[in-house]
Amino acid sequence: MDDLETRELRYFVAVAEELHFGRAAQRLGIAQPPLSRAIRQLERRLGVQLLDRDRRGVALTGAGDVLLHEARLALDAVASAARRTRRAADRQRPLVLVTKAGASHELLQRLLAASAARSDTAPVEVLLCEVGEQARFLRNGRADVALMHRPVDDLAGFDTEDICTEGQVALLPAGHPLAARPQLTLADVTDVPGLPIARWPRLDGSYPDGPGPEVRTQSQLAQLVALGKTLLVIPASSRAWQWPDHVAVPVVDAPEITTVLAWPADNRAPALAALARAAAELRTMPPAAARTAAR
Questions:
Q1: 213 preceded by cis ω (within 30°)?
Q2: Where does the HTH lysR-type domain start and stop, copy by copy (predicted)?
Q3: pLDDT at 148 over 60
Q4: pLDDT digits (tens, 9 = 90+) for 85-119
C-alpha cells in the first residue's frame, strides 16, 4: 500500500530532523512510545528501513534521506493547498511578494512603483526572509511570488520572468589589504589566510565543508565581515545593506547573477500575470528611466 498520511509524514520529519525520538515527541506534543510505534509501522508499510537505531542515537538511511526530502515537499504542498484556497476566496487580498532582506533593494522599489502605476495589478505586500527561504515560502503558500536569483536559488517548479543581470562583488572588512584593490578575481578571495568565505546552509539545512563560519542571516554575516572574520561574494546590488565597516570590490570573473520574478507554475491569477508584465517592462529600462516611468 503506497498511501501515506500527512500525520505519518509529520512524525517522520520530526524524527529525521531531530535525530532523537524524545526531542521529536516533545516537538510534536505526543508521548515517545506512540511515536516509535508509528515510525516502525511506517517502515513496515513501505518495506524499507528509514532509520538506523543504536546506542549512539538515530541516523537516516539512504531511503530515509529520500523520504525526508519527499515528505517536506508533500507537507509543503498540503499546507500550500489550504493557504491558497483560503486566499482565493478573498478577491481584495494583496499579492504577497517574498524577497531576501537587503537584496535587490532598488529593484524592489522600482517593481513596487511600476506595479502601483498600473491599473491591472493588485496591491503588493512584501514579506522579508533570509537567504534561500523564498522557494519554501512559495511552495507552502505563504507567498504568491518572489524575487530570486539564478543560478544560486532553487527555481525548480517555478515560472520566472527575468528582470536584470549583474556582476558580483566581494564584501570585505574595510581594513583588509584586499579592500584597497580596484578589482579582484575568484582566486584572490579563495583561501584568504584568516578570512575564510562564509558558509550558507544547503537546501536540506546542512552546511558545506570549509573553514568559514556558518551563517543563516544577513545580520550575522554583516557583523562577522565587520569583525574581520569572514568575506563573501554577492550580487552587486546587495551592497545596499553593507555597513561603513565593509568595502565592496568587483569580482571580475564571478558568474553573473540574474534577478527573476518567480511564482508557482500552476498559479494563473490575473493579478500575478500583471505583476509579471510590470517586471518584464523593467527589464527593458535602465534604472533612471524605470523610476521616471513609474511616477
A1: no
A2: 4-61
A3: yes
A4: 776 666 667 899 999 887 778 899 999 999 999 88
Region 153-161 average pLDDT: 92
Predicted pLDDT at 290: 38
Q: CB-based contacts of 79: which residues, under 8 Å, 6+ apart?
A: 140, 141
Which amino acid makes up residue 27? R
CA distance 173 to 17: 35
Q: 34 lies in which domain range?
A: 6-85
Distance CA 11, CA 21 (A): 10
C-alpha 277/C-alpha 234 separation (Å) is 27
Rounded to whole angstroms, the Cα distance separating 136 from 205 reads 12
**What pLDDT is recorded for position 136?**
87
Closest CA to 246 of 180, 174, 177: 174
**Same-domain check for residues 230 and 180:** yes
> What CATH number should be reported for the domain holding residue 44?
1.10.10.10
Neighbours of 175 (CB within 10 A): 11
Residue 256 is which amino acid?
E
CATH number at residue 202: 3.40.190.10
Residues 6 or more apart whose Cβ sits within 8 Å of residue 57: 19, 20
CA distance 94 to 123: 5
Report the mean per-residue pLDDT for the chain.
Answer: 87
Q: Which of 113, 149, 102, 143 is nearest to 126 (CA)?
A: 143
Within a domain: residue 20? Answer: yes
Q: pTM of the entire structure?
A: 0.70
In this predicted structure, the answer to whether residue 295 has a pLDDT above a threshold of 80 is: no
**What are 225's three cell numbers?**
565581515
Work out the pLDDT band at 284, boundaries 50, 70, 90.
low
103 within 8 A of 166, measured Cβ to Cβ = no
In this structure, of 17-31, 197-211, 227-241, the range with the lowest mean pLDDT score is 197-211
1 domain residue, yes or no: no
Q: What is the pLDDT of residue 218?
A: 82
